[in-house]
Amino acid sequence: MTNPAERLVDLLDLERIELDIFRGRSPDESLQRVFGGQVAGQALVAAGRTTDGQRPVHSLHAYFLRPGRPGVPIVYQVERVRDGRSFTTRRVVGIQQGRTIFNLTASFHSPEPGIEHQLPMPDVPGPEGLPTLADEVRAHLGTLPEAFARMERRQPFDVRYVERLRWTDEELKGAEPRSAVWMRAVGPLGDDPLVHTCALTYASDMMLLDAVRVPVEPLWGPRGFDMASLDHAMWFHRPFRTDEWFLYEQESPVATGGRGLARGRIYDRAGRLLVSVVQEGLFRPLRPAEGAADDG
User: What would you report as the CA-atom Rg of the chain, rounded to the nearest whole angstrom?
Assistant: First the structure.
């Protein structure tokens, strides 16, 4: 398979090795740790496959406990916490080489009549007239570095920043801790709602912590910080398709003590609020010639 969207669907297709035990692949890529969105998405697949499929997930809360190793399979053990009249609850533990690296609790609920309101979507330009990320990098550098080109070929999502990227310290002055991007999968993801939910869970971890970094350093290029997701929470409000454009609005209300908090809201083209996201990340300054820290 050459289509990154197809590879994402395949990545989320776990192997069932026991009734409530699943095994997920972890691509052997040139990363220091397994991408957190991959682990969260696979864990949610495991949770969803132990339900009757009639109740969509409405929330998840997760902790990244240890960095996963690329290229090594991850085993997901599911505990059936509750099957109630309205809600289904599952707890998932991700294990790699005998060590717990991740845990997640997911709750499933069938929508029912109730009150209706939401915060409006910000007034932003649509995605079609915005440059792709590759276009922005090429315009800034005059060429597309091979390392970035390889990343783009593997990237399952088309990402377009609403505001022009800042590349210099001068441009960073006065920047608020906010960011917004349009995103969609680069190809069809099929019609299984669980796949779309898990694919969006994957995407939600891709750049949420960008909002923390905006006032400090350019979002693309050499990093001055080692960053790691510490936890992740999502609330799913309405059905959606991840292979259609959605706006991911992000903000960081606070960063202190080596940690930064980020909040995200995901809207569809019609302005409906689909998903709310909150994440805290670890930020440690890198020393010269020092690699990213291992928090394990």
Answer: 19
